[in-house]
From TrEMBL:
Assigned protein family: Belongs to the MCRIP family.
Record keyword Cytoplasm present: yes
Protein name stated in the entry: MCRI2 protein
Taxonomic placement: Eukaryota, Metazoa, Chordata, Craniata, Vertebrata
Cell location: Cytoplasm, Stress granule; Nucleus
UniProt keyword list: Cytoplasm, Nucleus
Domain of life: Eukaryota
Organism encoding this protein: Anhinga rufa
Gene that this polypeptide is encoded by: Mcrip2
Keyword hit for Metal-binding: no
GO cellular component: cytoplasmic stress granule; nucleus
Pfam family, one: FAM195
């Protein structure tokens, strides 16, 4: 019988939930320093977003300013963003095909 083909389905653009029996990769270990760094960046970004939202509604006169280009870069007019999830799926499939 032919080998089963992996299918990556997206629901509303979200990644599908991975069931534990499907995951064969070893569990990643995070150090305390890593967790502290992630928490610091997350909390700092939450503050920036709150300040940006406050400045949009006129609550704050100072704080972060969101950068918006006034004149678009002509060198980027043909830029096409990469679908990172699709790229990872292709890499994953290529790795499986090379192993079999």
């Amino acid at each position: 019988s032919p080998a089963q083909k992996l299918v990556f389905n997206r629901v509303n653009g979200k990644r599908p939930q991975v069931l534990p029996q499907q995951v064969s990769a070893p569990e990643e270990c995070y150090t305390l320093a890593h967790e502290e760094n992630v928490r610091f960046v997350y909390e700092a970004w939450q503050q920036v977003e709150q300040q940006l939202n406050g400045s949009r509604s006129g609550e704050s006169a100072c704080g972060p300013v969101q950068y918006v280009e006034k004149t678009p870069n002509t060198g980027l007019k043909n830029f096409v963003p990469i679908d990172l999830e699709e790229w990872w799926a292709q890499q994953f499939l290529a790795k499986i095909e090379n192993c079999s």
